[in-house]
Amino acid sequence: xxxxxxxxxxxxxxxxxxxxxxxxxxxxxxxxxxxxxxxxxxxxxxxxxxxxxxxxxxxxxxxxxxxxxxxxxxxxxxxxxxxxxxxxxxxxxxxxxxxxxxxxxxxxxxxxxxxxxxxxxxxxxxxxxxxxxxxxxxxxxxxxxxxxxxxxxxxxxxxxxxxxxxxxxxxxxxxxxxxxxxxxxxxxxxxxxxxxxxxxxxxxxxxxxxxxxxxxxxxxxxxxxxxxxxxxxxxxxxxx
Length: 240
Known about the structure:
The chain is α/β, with parallel strands linked by helices.
């Protein structure tokens, strides 16, 4: 898996990973590389697609890793016709694909994504980017060899959004259109940037469920629990 860069979006995620890796100096700003152990680096990107893609390419040029993993928290999407029941809090999600979920046109009859509109993302045939199968298998092996007590491991699509699903109709729409089981804000942009610029670099996305999606006032949150799982994951990645 090494040399590898872990990409987090927000300070809370970075602090949890540093705590789990027994690193006493978490990042104080975006794009500040922290070496967690020999060959394993942490870079905080900032939240959202643009910040994440910029930071990923910066880290690629600066650290020259063989692999990158987008790691952090995510919201569980509701059950869709193609999907399973919503994941419980603290579940770990390994992405098999990162899906651009809200690039498109909202019309009176429904959402038309940019690929269907004839303006799909450069280099993609649809709106999703596959993760690297070998790297995902390596991460899965680490997590199954030393499982975290009481924490489920799921695999499926992760939707990358600019507008988080704070209403039931929006959450249901994202789940139905993408088939994703969780949503976050960076994965597809990082995977896309790497695929176009450095396709030899392996990419994976790993998320921990911190909340459900849907009507904001009715959402259930467990950020402390999700951060604790992130810390335990970091500890396992450092030791592997």
